[in-house]
UniProtKB/TrEMBL annotation:
<feature type="binding site">
    <location>
        <position position="392"/>
    </location>
    <ligand>
        <name>substrate</name>
    </ligand>
</feature>
<comment type="similarity">
    <text>Belongs to the Orn/Lys/Arg decarboxylase class-II family. LysA subfamily.</text>
</comment>
<feature type="modified residue" description="N6-(pyridoxal phosphate)lysine">
    <location>
        <position position="77"/>
    </location>
</feature>
<feature type="binding site">
    <location>
        <position position="293"/>
    </location>
    <ligand>
        <name>substrate</name>
    </ligand>
</feature>
<keyword id="KW-0028">Amino-acid biosynthesis</keyword>
<dbReference type="InterPro" id="IPR029066">
    <property type="entry name" value="PLP-binding_barrel"/>
</dbReference>
<dbReference type="InterPro" id="IPR022657">
    <property type="entry name" value="De-COase2_CS"/>
</dbReference>
<feature type="domain" description="Orn/DAP/Arg decarboxylase 2 C-terminal">
    <location>
        <begin position="298"/>
        <end position="390"/>
    </location>
</feature>
<feature type="binding site">
    <location>
        <begin position="290"/>
        <end position="293"/>
    </location>
    <ligand>
        <name>pyridoxal 5'-phosphate</name>
    </ligand>
</feature>
<keyword id="KW-0457">Lysine biosynthesis</keyword>
<feature type="binding site">
    <location>
        <position position="364"/>
    </location>
    <ligand>
        <name>substrate</name>
    </ligand>
</feature>
<dbReference type="GO" id="GO:0009089">
    <property type="term" value="P:lysine biosynthetic process via diaminopimelate"/>
</dbReference>
<dbReference type="Pfam" id="PF02784">
    <property type="entry name" value="Orn_Arg_deC_N"/>
</dbReference>
<feature type="binding site">
    <location>
        <position position="331"/>
    </location>
    <ligand>
        <name>substrate</name>
    </ligand>
</feature>
<dbReference type="InterPro" id="IPR002986">
    <property type="entry name" value="DAP_deCOOHase_LysA"/>
</dbReference>
<protein>
    <recommendedName>
        <fullName>Diaminopimelate decarboxylase</fullName>
        <ecNumber>4.1.1.20</ecNumber>
    </recommendedName>
</protein>
<keyword id="KW-0210">Decarboxylase</keyword>
Length: 442
């Protein structure tokens, strides 16, 4: 049986950064969102710096209260805007990067190289050389082939690479197939039965300094049980390696802690801290985590305007057509993901909701944000906020259908400022050129 969607009032009540004011309408960190939308236009991304800070501090507090010293390496892939990275750097976070571009971006945002972990299943020789030249704190290696390639690059550069082996513990995290990373059939990590042999091999290869192990089993995980199972396997491997005379100084626990998008009962950070303490707390290793979604997702909303309400026959839900689309927020089209939607108008919020299907204007049938969603009746020009889009939102945007990248703003303590201008439409073809034979014809 399909469970009912939460109504707009319930969505609002469960998000402490949002407030509906009787005059100003929906506010995010005490900034009336209609001011941002009217100034920058829609669609428009809004990031809450205070929310980023609060969630980072809550995560740190959970580790401290568990008696753990855990380094936080924020996963850039979730939201890599320089303003976001600056806030998190101020809060004491390092970075987890998965490309040379992300590494350059993290350095440009002021993050220290030694506080950066380079992860990812397909690092090129050029990216490895960059990481070594900059002196990143750790490179998480995902295969025997990558290990040997890194050894050759490090030796050729006369440098030593601090490496951790990312192991695949063959644990099903119970999340969506597209964001599961720790099962035997997933592309990530070193097969469990090969990890000990490869660790010994790493210790013998020139240019490498094996320092520990890494694990990451997926994203949007809503139970501590998969974490405990994965970390227990890692702990057993640490003990095995040490018994065989090898040095293991670090364990990178990855990320994946889920949030509440719809009506999920999301585990608090204390649950993750408890799983780490129970399984790894007595191993005398330096611990780290790589959160992305948990910190960033609730710190963002996507503002959009209603273009049209398309009435349907036979009592089917009407189509609410927005000016935001799948090229802006790809997650619903990619993963069938659920995002809350709220009107910015206080008058609209309190009108009885009716089922409506919320879509964008892109010419794809998958350009759907919500099906038969209970929403108050809305009209052309009304403003809405799509919630919890701070992670895997703007970073996954494209210019499909020649739709320019949306503007972005940041809010904190009742003030706001643009942090990225809307892309001019002319910029879409500014870097395009014609081959000589077409120039001659034209």
């Amino acid at each position: 049986m399909t469970r009912p969607d939460p109504d707009p009032l319930n969505l609002l009540a469960s998000r402490p950064s949002l407030r509906m004011d009787a005059q100003a309408g929906l506010s995010f960190e005490d900034v009336p969102l209609h001011l941002v939308a009217r100034t920058l236009g829609t669609p428009c991304w809004v990031t809450g710096a205070g929310t980023l800070r609060r969630r980072t501090r809550n995560l740190k507090t959970a580790f401290v209260e568990a008696g753990l010293d855990v380094a936080i390496h924020y996963a850039l892939k979730a939201n890599d805007h320089l303003a976001t990275l600056t806030v998190l750097r101020e809060e004491g976070c390092g970075a987890d990067v998965v490309s040379g571009g992300e590494l350059h971006r993290a350095i440009h945002a002021g993050l220290a190289p030694e506080d950066i972990v380079f992860s990812g299943v397909g690092k090129t020789r050029e990216e490895m050389a960059l990481a070594l030249r900059l002196g990143v704190g750790q490179i998480n290696v995902e295969s025997a082939e990558e290990l040997h390639r890194l050894s050759r690059v490090a030796t050729g550069a006369d440098r030593s690479a601090r490496v951790a082996l990312r192991v695949n513990p063959d644990i099903d995290a119970g999340t969506h197939d597209k964001i599961s990373t720790g099962r035997a059939g997933d592309k990530f990590g070193i097969a469990w039965d090969q990890a000990a042999t490869l660790y010994a091999e790493a210790a013998a290869l020139p240019g490498l300094e094996p320092v520990g192990l890494a694990v990451h089993i997926g994203s949007q995980i809503l139970s501590p049980a998969p974490f405990r199972a994965a970390f227990a396997r890692v702990a057993a491997l640490v003990r095995q390696l040490r018994a065989e005379g090898m040095t293991v100084r670090t364990v990178d626990c990855g990320g994946g802690l889920g949030i509440r998008y719809r009506d999920e009962i999301a585990p608090p950070p204390a649950a993750l801290a408890g799983a780490i303490k129970e399984t790894l707390g007595t191993l005398d290793v330096a611990l780290a985590v790589e959160p992305g979604r948990w910190i960033a997702a609730p710190a963002g909303v996507l503002l959009s305007s209603v273009i049209d309400v398309k009435r349907t026959p036979d009592g089917a839900p009407d189509f609410l057509i927005l000016d935001a689309a799948m090229n802006d927020l790809a997650r619903p089209a990619l993963y069938e993901s659920w995002h809350g939607i709220l009107p910015l108008s206080p008058e609209r919020l309190h009108v009885d909701p009716t089922p409506q299907t919320v879509v964008g204007p892109v010419c794809e049938s998958s350009d759907v944000f919500a099906e038969a969603r209970p929403l108050p009746p809305l009209r052309e020009g009304d403003l809405v906020a799509i919630l919890d889009t701070g992670a895997y939102g703007s970073v996954m945007s494209s210019t499909y259908n020649s739709r320019p990248f949306a503007a972005q703003a940041m809010v904190e303590n009742g003030v706001w400022q643009p942090i990225r201008a809307r892309q001019p439409v002319e910029a879409l073809w500014a870097d395009e050129t014609l081959p000589d034979w077409l120039r001659r014809v034209s």
